[in-house]
Amino acid sequence: MNNGAIVRVRGLRTRVGDVEVLRGIDLDVQRGAVVAIVGASGSGKTTLLRALNYLTPFSHGEVVVAGHRLQPGMNERADAALLRQVRTRVGMVFQHFHLFPHLTAVGNITEAPRYVLGVDPMAAQARALALLERVGLASHGHAYPHTLSGGQQQRVAIARALAMDPDVLLLDEPTSALDPRLVGEVLAVIADLAAGGQTMVIVTHEIAFARRVAHRVVVVDAGLIVESGTPDDVLERPRNAATRALLALE
Amino acid sequence: MTRRFFPALAFVVLTHGAAPALAQDALVQVRTRGVLRWGGDIQGGEPYAFRDPHDSARLVGFEVEIADALAHRLGGRAEFVQNDWSTLIPSLERGDFDVILNGLEVTAARRERVAFTRPYYAFSETFVVRRDDGALRSLDDLRGRRVGTLAASLGFELLRARPGVEVVLYEGVEEPYIDLEQGRLDGVVLDNIIADRYGLVRPTLRAAATVGEGTYAIAIRPADKALLQAVDTALGEMRRAGELRAILTRWSLWNERQERLSEVAPAAATQAAPGAVTVSQLLLFLHATGFTVLISTLAMGLAVAGGLVLSVARRYGGAPLRFAATTYVELFRGTPVLLQLYVLYYGLAPLLTLNAFTAAVVGLGMNYAAYESELYRAGLQAVPIGQTEAALSLGMSRRLTLRRIVLPQALRVALPGIANDFIALLKDSSLVSVITVVELTKQMTITAVDVRSWAWPGLLCAGLYLALSYPLSRLARRLERRLVPVPA
């Protein structure tokens, strides 16, 4: 972390079967930065994001995140303690929310603080209600996930990740599974977090949103970072053909 | 359950339909067919009627020889019909066979339902205890003790007349003596033939006293007066010709008690209406229902917990653990629960002496655990991988993820199946009567013998089972409905 990065990726390669999905990725994420990863479907951007908390193992290179070093060949059983430490500091928001269906909104948010960190139930509940208010769902604390809209579910999922006070929040296409009219409410919450200084890495197809919120845009194509820079540089003056193709779809 | 219960219902249905067929005396049919069908239970074993150990296709025994000789004198051959010993009389009434010839003791209660020929054997009732139990000399010493005998036997009548004795009922003749040796019983009261061959051959047991006498005779439907006459006459001829004595001598059964038999006359049926169900019998039914509920509930608790362990071992365990759990499931699902109960209670007795109640709960619980584990396995598979990823990415350990996130969801999926299995278990619990537990179905068969009718006890028993299972099936259906709308 000599350069102040909360995430540092070096020489990352991942092979799935015969296909090399990531072919040598270097990436730094500074504290307080919002990094948007864009790229065509199948370019490897989601695999890159999931490597950052080792949900997807990688075959070469290293990831240093929140002060811990992740290496190839680690596994869930043998390296459980280290992975738990990393994931306690790294939040994740999924495309399909993955809320716990048997728990209420508050139950989803208090689960990890209570059972992983040992936070007092009353304190965890108070914090959950505050987070729900922050994502605009103050009155939905007792609702079960299946009674909520997709946009509401994703906002609960963001609150669930924030409840652990993560050093960095990973968001994997957070609006892709949403009805178009529900996208706005989720993006508004993410923009609010960015304004509050939350470090985030967002895989997204929302180019306009990336332009508005991200400090840096990273373009992934065929397992490599082909372009990286400020939104103005990358999205207004793209130099790479893949970036231009991506923007042409807009 | 079905094994014993259906005959009861069938009897209710058939009583009227069967009557016209019985109007003609069975002797006519025996002569026409040239076959005398006789009922017995080969589980009674040596020396009555049993499979020849050297040729299992052949039946042997002193009663087999008597039946053959009688049939020959009636001008035909004998045909054996296998039937549970405790339900021989209802089956005779149904017309499944023409006579009962199987150690059936002449008692007042039986004479209200069947007619008996003159006796073919005089027995004594032998009270057997453990050699090291010097305190027991007569039935009077048995207050508060557990004593075994056969269901619906003379021994049962004798013991039941003594308040304070805990009577334990068996269906085979070997098992009571096994239990006596293991200390699960304090004494056994059975006919001397049985005591001599199955009890007193064990070095740890001794005969404490002779507590009664009686005779075996051939039972015939009261309406078949001509058949009774013919069989009784044939038996008298066999005695006079020395044929009966020769048979009994061949089986080492002849003694001076048999000499006196020639003076005993046939015992005609006495008239009696089927008895009514009394309040005390109703109380026995409720007590037995309590046992059924208690055994089923405890066994289900064991099955739910055991199934959970099995399913988690199969999904998350290492190779040896997975193999062990899979073997367990296949073994317990692939063999009859009746056999498992038998092995657990009698087979393991030298190593592990469980009392009947514990063996019943453990046996049913272990069997159902195999089925529950399959339900959980399906439940675990139904929980999307995203749930585990979400929990892990929050820093939850694998164990915590399983306990807090995956299992609660898997259980919900499995819950309707568990409720359905509980209903099945409630009925399967009737099987534990083979290891001497008197639960609802067993109580029904005992009462049916007492009141000389299967109708009332059978319907009452059915009603009680329904009263237990119907609310459960409603619950299962509600759970199923509630689960459907929740998307994964």
Order of strands, main sheet of chain B, comes to 4-1-5-10-6-9-7-8
What name is given to the CATH topology of the largest domain in chain B?
MetI-like fold
List SSEs of chain A in N-to-C order: EEEHEEHEHHHEHEHEEHH
Distance between the termini of chain B: 38 Å
Our count of helices of chain A gives 9
Label the CATH architecture of chain A: 3-Layer(aba) Sandwich
Spatial ordering of strands, largest sheet of chain A:
6-7-8-3-9-10
Count of all domains of chain A = 1
Mean pLDDT of chain B: 86
**Helix/sheet category of chain A:** alpha/beta
CATH superfamily annotation of the largest domain in chain B: MetI-like
Order of helices and strands of chain B: HHEEEHEHEHEEHEHEHEHHHHHHHHHHH
* Main sheet record of chain B: 8 strands, mixed
Distance between the termini of chain A: 37 Å
The number of domains of chain B? 3
Show unreliable segments of chain B.
Answer: 1-22, 484-488
CATH class of chain A: Alpha Beta
Helix share of residues of chain B?
A: 55-70%
Unreliable runs of chain A: none
Q: Greatest chain-chain interface?
A: A-B, 29 and 23 residues
How would you describe this structure to a colleague?
The complex is a heterodimer of chains A (250) and B (488). Chain A has 250 residues and is α/β, with parallel strands linked by helices. Chain A contains nine helices and ten strands. Chain A has helices spanning 45-51, 80-89, 105-115, 121-134, 150-162, 180-195, 207-213, 231-236, 241-248, and strands spanning 5-16, 19-30, 34-38, 60-65, 68-70, 90-93, 168-172, 200-203, 216-221, 224-229. In chain A, a hairpin with a 2-residue loop joins strand 9 and strand 10 (224-229). In chain A, helix 3 (105-115) packs parallel to helix 5 (150-162), helix 4 (121-134) crosses helix 5 and helix 5 (150-162) packs parallel to helix 6. The model of chain A has no long low-confidence stretch (mean pLDDT 93). Chain B is α/β, with parallel strands linked by helices and 488 residues long. Chain B folds into three domains: 2-121 and 216-259, 3-Layer(aba) Sandwich (D-Maltodextrin-Binding Protein, domain 2); 123-214, 3-Layer(aba) Sandwich (D-Maltodextrin-Binding Protein, domain 2), CATH 3.40.190.10; 279-483, MetI-like fold (Orthogonal Bundle). Chain B has helices at residues 2-23, 26-33, 62-73, 88-94, 108-111, 154-160, 175-182, 192-199, 225-240, 243-250, 256-259, 279-316, 319-334, 337-347, 356-382, 385-392, 398-428, 440-451, 455-483; strands spanning 35-40, 50-52, 55-60, 77-82, 99-100, 115-130, 146-150, 166-170, 187-191, 205-220. Chain B has an eight-stranded mixed β-sheet, sandwiched between helices. A two-stranded antiparallel sheet of chain B has the order 2-3. Chain B is elongated. Mean pLDDT of chain B is 86; it is low at 1-22 and 484-488. Chains A and B meet through helix 2, strand 6 and helix 3 of A and helix 16 and helix 17 of B.
